[in-house]
Task: inverse folding
């Protein structure tokens, strides 16, 4: 067993730390206030070959591993979780299904521009009546000649305003009494396709969360992603990988809040001494540090299993569940350690606290992760 990062993983950590602190952190508070999406950050990440980090070089990627991807998400989220989720969704929801299930032509046409950072990746699964029960999709695709006509809607879709195209799921029929779900690659400028970006969110204000409306959207059969009826299985596989990204995002948020709380606790004096000397505060910081280390270790384990080509469904759920609950707990403690200042925008930890909540919801809620783990251990 080797807990040491490889030299490449260390290099990516250093690169991402510099990039996050130099390019992402400075405007993070302002973007949180103005809700501005930082397109320029992702253009720069494209220039650095980060937008296709874990995909092969032949598709414009950097050929790095999943551990490196987790490190990249963590470092972005340590300073700005909105940037972290945008990048995580781009890689694990936007690019991954194309890489895993696309034909060679589809990869050249769609994966390459994503990896080169020319457009952002997105994935349309959730619907107003199909969230945790994503198999309850109502969006329908009906075949007419060599085309599919898609009608329906999707909600809470990350990045779609900045995506030239995205993969989404639709019901294409019934087989043995079960809905047959198929994935399609749809251009966002297709007539009948509308992307609406007007949610008022708790946090992640500078990430893009959208509603999609599809009215008689025509998609050629060559844009079908994988076989008819494979959509359900495909999104389960996609979400397994995505959960490593959300786990890494949660570790980054927790780390960022912990560092701010530790620094504040050392500097703040009450009753004639640094508050970090009060055991109640010191123990909180010790627990924060410990939980973050455990969450990070488990995110890397899930990523490592994926890189080995081993089954990682249970580990992806466990890392996402543990890391997201850690992020929520750590950010709550961070606000507490800063007292009244923790409640104020200027001290940043309230942004981490608001942003952390999404990690317990997106890509499967904590309840759904527990269901998956229970199923995997044979309950
Ligand atoms: C900011 C943001 C970004 C997102 N990005 C995307 C995206 O890019 N693409 C995409 O497709 N989706 C995206 N989502 C959607 C997200 O994955 C869903 O919100 C999530 O899966 C939960 O679905 P729901 O909101 O419909 O809640 P529901 O499924 O309605 O759940 C409501 C509550 O019931 C509980 N519950 C439901 N079923 C069970 C059960 N079987 N056992 C126990 N408890 C249960 C849930 O845990 C939850 O507490 C995003 C969401 C947000 C908020």
Result:
């Amino acid at each position: 067993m080797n807990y040491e990062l490889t030299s490449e993983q260390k290099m990516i950590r250093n690169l991402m730390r510099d990039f996050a602190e130099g390019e992402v952190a400075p405007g993070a508070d302002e973007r949180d206030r103005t809700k501005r999406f930082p397109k320029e950050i992702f253009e720069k990440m494209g220039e650095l070959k980060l937008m296709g980090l874990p995909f092969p070089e032949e598709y414009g990627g950097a050929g790095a591993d999943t551990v490196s991807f987790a490190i990249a998400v963590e470092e972005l989220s340590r300073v700005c979780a909105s940037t972290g989720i945008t990048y995580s969704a781009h890689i694990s929801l936007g690019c991954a299904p194309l890489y895993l299930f696309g034909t060679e032509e589809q990869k050249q046409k769609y994966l390459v521009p994503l990896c080169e950072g020319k457009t952002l990746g997105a994935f349309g699964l959730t619907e107003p009546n199909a969230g945790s029960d994503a198999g309850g999709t109502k969006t329908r695709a009906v075949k007419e000649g060599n085309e599919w006509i898609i009608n329906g809607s999707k909600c809470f879709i990350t990045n779609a305003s900045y995506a030239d195209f995205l993969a989404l799921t639709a019901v294409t029929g019934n087989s043995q009494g079960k809905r047959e779900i198929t994935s399609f690659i749809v251009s966002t400028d297709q007539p009948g396709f509308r992307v609406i970006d007007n949610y008022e969110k708790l946090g992640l204000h500078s990430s893009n969360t959208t509603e999609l409306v599809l009215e008689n959207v025509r998609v050629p059969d060559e844009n079908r992603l994988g076989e008819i009826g494979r959509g359900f299985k495909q999104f389960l596989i996609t979400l397994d990988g995505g959960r490593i990204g959300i786990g890494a995002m949660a570790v980054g948020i927790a780390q960022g809040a912990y560092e701010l709380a530790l620094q504040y606790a050392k500097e703040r004096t009450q009753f004639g001494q640094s508050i970090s000397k009060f055991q109640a505060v010191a123990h909180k910081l010790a627990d924060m540090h410990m939980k973050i280390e455990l969450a990070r270790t488990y995110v890397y384990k899930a990523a490592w299993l994926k890189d080995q080509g081993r089954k990682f469904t249970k580990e992806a759920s466990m890392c996402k569940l543990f890391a997201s609950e850690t992020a929520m707990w750590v950010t709550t403690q961070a606000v507490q350690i800063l007292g009244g200042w923790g409640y104020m925008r200027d001290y940043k930890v309230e942004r981490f606290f608001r942003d952390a909540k999404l990690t317990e919801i997106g890509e499967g809620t904590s309840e759904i992760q527990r269901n998956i783990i229970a199923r995997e251990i044979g309950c």
